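Quick one: structure for this chain?
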Amino acid sequence: MAAVFVLGCGADPAGNDAPRGNASSHDAGAKASSSPLPSPLTGAQTVAAVLAPVDLRGDWKTTSEDLSPHVEERDHGIIGVDGDAACDEVVAGSFRDAKPTAVASRTMRDSNRQTVVGVSVDAYPSVEGARQKLETVRQLRQKCSGAAVESYTIEYGVLSTPPRGDESYGVRMRANGQRFDEIVIRVGASTVSVTFAESAGDDTELVDATTAQAAEKLRQAALR
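Got it. Here's what it folds into:
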């Protein structure tokens, strides 16, 4: 799990039980090339949408993955966040959002640069379910800054993101000194979250290429 309070499933890009989140939006405008799409994705389509080492430039290797599309209890809602009343309401509301119908994830490392990227795909029963995820993530950043997750203190910051898919949103998060940049992209009724650990988020070329590939692979998987 990418985080102790995640919306959906994903592998921790640093190999630790560190948190994950999302913030700073771009509405890409529902381009004809990406919408409309069938919904929801099947389990096989969801697994096929997850980026693999072969999709990235460099000497990438898988360090962990969860390719069982079965949705577990931890894959729905914000888990473990403790904040003020406004934050608690966001947490409670996340469990009222649509539950994903399938989830899959993979974490990869570039052995040359020791760069770590995590990717997770969540399929929802409708476009509205995927939109709810992005909205809940926005609220999480806005109302839960400085929240505690078990032994972690979480700080959120705005992250500029390239417009991807039908809409995209990113957050720069620091958890006890560790930095994670995450960009969540909606394509139809599904989302793909791409997390860059530590300084990987400063590599503009890597961020642009990886998020573009993640959005396109999700779109292509949905058309199978």
